[in-house]
Sequence to fold (537 residues):
Amino acid sequence: MFRAIGWIPRGLAVVILLRSIASAPAEAEADSLTEHLAERLAQQSPSLRAFYAVRDGRPAWQEAATVAALANALHTLDADGLTPQDYRPDTLVAAHRQALEATSPPEARVRFELRASQTLLTALRHLQRGKVDPYRIDPDWEVPIAAPPLDLAEISQSVDTRAFDRAFAAARPSAPPYQRLRASLARYRHIARQGGWPMMPPRPRSLRPGEVHDDVRRLRERLALLGELEVMAGEPWSDPASMPPDPRRYDERLVAAVERFQRRHLLEVDGIVGPRTRSALNVPVTTRIDQIRVNLERARWLLHGLPDSFVLVDIAGYRIRYFRPDGGVWRSRIVVGRPYRRTPSLRSQITHLTINPTWTVPPTILREDVLPRVRRHLGYLWEQDLMVLSPSGRRLDPRDVDWWRPGNVILRQRAGPRNALGRVVLRFPNRHLVYLHDTPAQGLFEREQRAFSSGCIRVQGVLELAQQLFDDTGTDARVGALVAAGRTRNIDLARSVPVILHYWTVHPDEAGRLVFRPDIYARDGALLEALDAPLAP
Fold:
């Protein structure tokens, strides 16, 4: 406006002049910082260089309020089971103040600039894909982490607007299981802050329905804390934690709550508080919190880039689900490997099925299981329908073999009702040579805990799954007719189907309640130790 009329008031001119004089050193200082930053970036990690590339080389951490907002945001990572002190939020503000002192050289400001940016990128990467490298703690791990690259432009904008909660929300897995685990972590920590739950005292015999005992009151309090007690129709009280007329009586309502607890801990569902149920009730809340944290880390490894349709094998939960292209979900029970013959974690593609399979006894099973039985009783070979073959495939007479020094003989079980693989095998490439298959030992599926195999996965109702795979991939085949024909043959799927084998010891069920599983392969300890290990400065 003043230019339009050709003059500027004297007072305003003085102000403009003073501001321009004052801003000149600041602009020169900013230019100097940008130049020093550009020089140092050449020696930095690709992620740091890319971050500053989207900013056109602009510094990110010159404002004290921005640094304080980052420090506050880092403290919130505790809600994801990470350790905020890994990222040293409490030292950031002081380090920034020191770097901006008049006596500090430009190099000090550049060092802080790079440190703060690296801290943010590290935290986001840990939140997105996990702090712990699964390959480092599990030599059998074979699941690539499919997390997408961080959106550096969005991150840069979050820095400029101090919206770090938005950056963190974009990084963490959005899948419902992760969100449920995160909510449960907050809930269990609240219980811990209230003093935890009451412990069940030792007892020489099981607590059975209908008994009257002081332990029942404690049991009722314990289950009420987690919402296991539910109001039954016609009861006069409405608060699930409220006491019945005789809180010492093990009544029907409490039996139902115990059965829900047993079901959520993969225990035999009988309503009897025996040694195993009592032991599960007495696991401290702090231990459960650690279990949730460990499985949040596992979720960060897995819950990215999942296909719309795939087969998911839940090893520790003894469950399998097939997410079908039409949105339906097929569910069933499985048997997995024993603790000393673990089912591995892997990701692959189901490529073909074997109908009426034969079974070649693997070397480990031959050495450790079969040979000792054959040495005790040669008739075991005929009982199990096992053929003895030379390395070239020539049939051998079992009576001509020295079973104490059998050499390279091969044992192969004929197709049929006694075959260890049953009638159908679902095959997928992997270095562990495991697969999904049928089994003649159907009774094992009735157990709550089912770690009985030598590493492969036995599937209840696998013929139904096989037919669904044929139908969903456009493969022209009928499982029933192929099995009835009795001939051993491989059927390629018209389109491969992704399969993931993964290990969770805590997982939310369809209702959102946590199911705690025994750590059958003792993997939680190593992961927790690595998760809690401080980051190197």
Q: What stands out?
A: The radius of gyration is 31 Å.
